[in-house]
Amino acid sequence: MRRHTLLLPLVLGTLAAPRAGAAQQPGLVVLNKSEATASIISLADGRTVATMPVGDGPHEIAVSPDGRWAMASNYGGTTPGHSLTLLDLRARTAVRTIELGEYKRPHGIAWLPDGKRVVVTSELAQAVFVVEAATGKIEKAISTGVGGTHLLVLSKDGKRVWTSNIFSGSNSLLDLEKGVLVKTAPNGKGPEAIDLSPDGRELWTADRPLNRITILDANTLDSIAAWPSGQFPNRLHFTPDGQTVLQSNAQSSTVGVYDAKSRKLLGNIEFPYDEALGKPTVLTQFGRSATPLGILIAPDGKRAWVALAAHDRLAEVDIATRKVVRTITAGREPDGMAYVPDIGAGKP
């Protein structure tokens, strides 16, 4: 079975040291679904400094622990996607396409702590699999056995992974070290958004059809609490200190901000629809919504970026005040984002 295509020889972990004495230039790498591209955006001025090709219908992207590489999952459009794209963020180029064979509709993605491998979900194969970035080799695959294995979140040590299974209405816990499925538990109709509390105790999920947030015990997948969300909850993320949760509602055109301890809604950040900017998206049912999808929280927990897919913009939010402080132009239909500590000078 053909599983990978290598475009260039590559060794991870043996790269040149960071630029001596150079000030870091933080930025974002953003996937533009309708363009099949990834943009590198400078946070200093909001300028797009590079645009790189990826595969059809890219949805999620992750940056390696050293900040040098990014891997995009090419989910596909009408035709199911079946590849990943590895990006060199320093050289600002697409390095290779990794073909995945039967592991179609790749979506959720995260780098393992070693910085050499990524773990990815496959909706159609109903599995989580581990890929060596340097070779494109699929190291192992673990079946969830349920439909729509969509998003994932890793434990800090990279030994366990939780998934949301949007077609089967469930969440799964897998042991990556042992290569086994630990448990799958029913949870509503279509949980998608998922994140693990920084202390590793709680798994927060959000159900798109039910417009509901549910908290599960991360170890047992037992339900702890549940309450209504906005319409079509799509993503949610904890701040690094574990005190706050941000959760996007694509149809309501809002992001809910929650106190993680009390589980109370602190307020909604609203994104009014702009007729001059509004464009159709892959998610066609939302009408006059800016369609907030992806959420990315800064390492210091003070700011967040929300992808407004219908506006081709990113909204930068001050989390403490729950105010939009600026908007940044992205490509066509932005969604998945990742933080880049240093976008460098565009040279390897």
Describe what you observe in this structure:
This protein is mainly β and about 350 residues long. The protein has a single domain, classed as Methylamine Dehydrogenase, Chain H (7 Propeller), CATH 2.130.10. The protein is built from no helices and 28 strands. The protein has strands spanning about 25-30, 35-40, 50-55, 60-65, 70-75, 80-90, 95-100, 105-110, 115-120, 125-130, 140-145, 150-155, 160-165, 170-175, 180-185, 190-195, 200-205, 210-215, 225-230, 235-240, 245-250, 255-260, 265-270, 290-295, 305-310, 315-320, 325-330, 335-340. Strands 3-2-1-28 form a four-stranded antiparallel beta sheet, with no helix packed on it. Strands 4-5-6-7 form a four-stranded antiparallel beta sheet, with no helix packed on it. Strand 18 and strand 19 (about 225-230) form a beta hairpin. The radius of gyration is 19 Å and the shape is globular. The two termini are about 35 Å apart. About 50% of the residues are buried.
In the sheet with the most strands, the strands line up as 3-2-1-28
CATH classification class:
Mainly Beta
Under the CATH scheme, the architecture is: 7 Propeller
Task: Count the domains.
Answer: 1
Mean pLDDT across the residues is 93
